[in-house]
Amino acid sequence: MTDRAAAAAAVAATAVDAYPRIVAALIRITGDWGLAEDCAQEALARALDRWPVEGVPANPGGWLMTVARNRVLDVLRRASVERRKLRELAVLALTAATAEPAGEEVVDDRLRLIFTCCHPALAIQDRVALTLRTICAVPTVEIARAFLVSESAMTRRLTRAKTRIADAGIPYRVPSGPALRERLPGVLAVLYLLFTRGYDADGEPAFADEAIRLARLLVRLMPEQPEASALLALFLLQHSRRAARRDADGNLVPLDRQNRSDWDHAAIAEGVRLVAGLPEQGPYAWQARIAACHATAASAEQTDWRRIADCYDQMFRLQPTPVVALNRAVAHGYAYGPAAGLSLLAEAREGGGLDGYPLALAVEADLVARQGDRDRAAALFRAAAERVHGDAERRALLDRARSG
Amino acid sequence: MKYMMLVCTDPEPDSEPQNHPDVEVWVAENDAAGRRLQGAQLAPASAATTVRVRGGQLLVSDGPFAEVKEMIVGFDLLECADLDEAIEVARAHPMAWAGRIELRPFADLDQ
Question: Is residue A49 part of a domain?
């Protein structure tokens, strides 16, 4: 590796942990999101410039923090008189702040940032985009690609969201007591959406890694919240299959045909350990248990479908949504035969919530195929393929329509 | 921060009126805490008058300026530390249950 490449790698490795801490601390002190992000970005750019020449400093995170903080001071000292009051307050706080704030303060800053980015008064898509940009430091152009909008549209959206935080008076704080119980599910939902965007066949794989990293951070910072642990377990168990989900041509490989030796067994072991420590309740806890059943089965045939069907029954009690009902029908179909699955599928469809949902057609196709009606199954698989969005999913469904 | 709390009706209210909080208690608590600066119930929309000036000409018409299902029936002016506090105040108002509440911060003209 050249010095430049080695320095770039060191900057990247430091930034993963240091960037959100720097942004969070600067927002706390200045209350200005744009300024905090710009100065943190400039510190990274300065490191890329200087580290190849001067060598990587002994405390790279502290170096970045100092550079970013001095940059904020520069900007504020040159700021117009109208902002004098903010300037004076911030300069005072920044001068007093140590380059590397101690224990509790660091923890609080990052949590504060997560809870503010995931505030329910922001639109859900804005929460995901802000989290990616501010906490994970994902470049705006990559977020734009995942949201299927132009970079300038995403820049505008992020600016609007940050303006809204200031204008609406969204606090920069971790809620406490009963408010924390109300708000945590919203934060976990943003991480879940982030993970899904990374895990979907046509998604940005890096987002799944970011979601796992954030879930780990939450678990470390809030060890007393079992749903955060459950979410991390769920991510690890699902993500363990990433290398086995596609064949050499990029086609999706269904779970029962995946090569289980390609699964990430270290991730599975960690997920299973987390699941073992979970208390009974909580929707993510049930999802994680189901994922653990799949991940620990020696083969598709040896999957404990009765246990999975039980878990879905419990989950359906907590979350009686059409999609949970659909998955419950699948599990019962494998545990107790296709007729049981079709009867629950009919129940799940009653409210109309699954109308036009391609996965419901695919599930019906699979159940019908297992009852021996191949023609009807093929027609249903084709109908599902017509409605599905991603190319990889469409190919997988058409493949099923042909092979029966 | 100052928030204008617009109290509105809603076509789909909460279905358990026996659980709704008492407005007198709400007013007393928030007045005592200094969070409610003032507030009032408004006469029905049928008493509203809309005023416009176009090309220097006064146009006066009856009724509210827009046909909406969610009508403003009252307001309270709040002084709160931030949005989370304003949300806590709003959720304790009976019309958050029987109708809906919109929180509008005052524009910050110092920026």
Answer: yes
